[in-house]
Amino acid sequence: MRFRTTTIALAVIAFASIATACSVPVFRYALEHWRPDLYVAYVFHDVELSKEQQAVANSMQPLGPDGAPIANLAVKVVDINDDLAPVIAEIWEAHKIEQLPTMVVRTPPKIGPPQTIWQGELTADNATIVMNSPARSRVSKKLIDGESVVWVYLESGQKEEDDRLFALLNSELDRLEKKLKLPDVEVEDLGELSVDPDTLKIKFSALRVSRDDAKEKAFVQMLLHVEPDLLDLEFSSQPMVFPIFGRGRALYALVGKGIAPDVIEEAAQFLTGACQCTVKAQNPGVDLIMNLNWDKLVIPTETLDEGLPPLAGFSGFGESDEATEMKESDGEIAVVSETIGNGSDSESESRESSTSIASVIDNSNGPKADSGSSMIGKNILFVLVFLVIGVVIASVFVAPRAS
Question: Are residues 106 and 191 in the same domain?
Fold first, then answer.
């Protein structure tokens, strides 16, 4: 039975990937279509915020002309004297600080149980550290200017070792720029690009960041939460490299001895290769907080980052521990989704803001394509895929047993 179940699962995954594959390079598809997941900043207070304090809280959620947030950070102001929702009460109990108001910034609920990447007094300086940093500004500028991937080198603090590995990283990136080739973008995928595919190029650069840089505190913590064990003691003094692409998405961490030519090349090949699955949630990586209006700087012609429809009868099939953990964080998602947008100046702005954020939280990244023919084509493709899956399932269960 285990063999049969595994066969079905592999068939479903394989056909789902084929159905959503695209010949556009991963780094470019991500830049065009994958909107960053939302971090959440809880502002806890026990007396009404002053105008200055409210201004600081508002500065962490700047809104665009359409009323939608620019940065991928949602702000929730919480009066601890009120009856708190259970999930918020739990956060407050875990982070009680005598100095109020205080803010607690948490990782996106979508990527698993939320973790705290910053906590501190609600001040303009602290808000700036959360929202911006010199390194993140350089990374975002390079990505907007057309670089494929920016490789952030997080120093270990051992200068000689850091110098050696940073030189190795740069040397390998120079070599890979010459060696790797971009996939040919197929005609049917041209609608996924807002630029001429002939203008795409492979361009890498490396950026060195110190763990002790006060201006990069929040950025460093975001990087260290890309994977669950990077904060473990055994990695605390090891150098790390994070390939960052798209709209500020870190692929994963290359740690210590993992900063090696073959591992660097593997990551580079994935990011410059054809996007085998266009659904962001089914790709590796964690988004970082970027205070940037990507939609104004990158204007895709069509967005197809839509999850496949659920398979009837397969609810919970093959569910991972990570999926279970995400369900446990649904309370936090609901609380944030319900309250974001309430600070808008008008009802219409509130609705637009809430709609935008809800679309990010429920993994509908970006506006849906409004082409009827496009939707029909997708539906036909899905039907064909599920028919094939049905044949596979039937062949497995109906096949005669060996006597």
Answer: no
Instruction: For the chain, state the CA radius of gyration.
Output: 23
207 within some domain: yes
What DSSP state is assigned to residue 361?
H
Do 382 and 348 lie in a common domain?
no
Amino acid identity, residue 99? Q
Strands (E), 48-148: 73-79, 102-106, 116-121
| Residue bearing tokens 């009827």 | 372
Instruction: Name the token pair of 100.
Output: 């109020």
Q: What whole-number distance in Å separates Cα of residue 389 and Cα of residue 314? A: 12
Q: Are 2 and 69 in contact (CB under 8 A)?
A: no
Phi/psi for 74 (5° steps) reads -100, 140
Closest residue by Cα to residue 292 from 147, 144, 192: 144
Domain boundary pick from 244, 267, 295: 295
Are the C-beta atoms of residues 110 and 363 closer than 8 Å to each other? yes
Q: Which domain holds residue 9?
A: 1-20+375-403
**How confident is the model over 321-375, as pLDDT tens digits?**
333 333 434 556 555 555 444 433 333 333 333 333 333 333 333 332 333 333 3
Q: Which residue has the tokens 């840089």?
A: 213
The pLDDT-based confidence of 145 (bands split at 50, 70, 90) is: very high
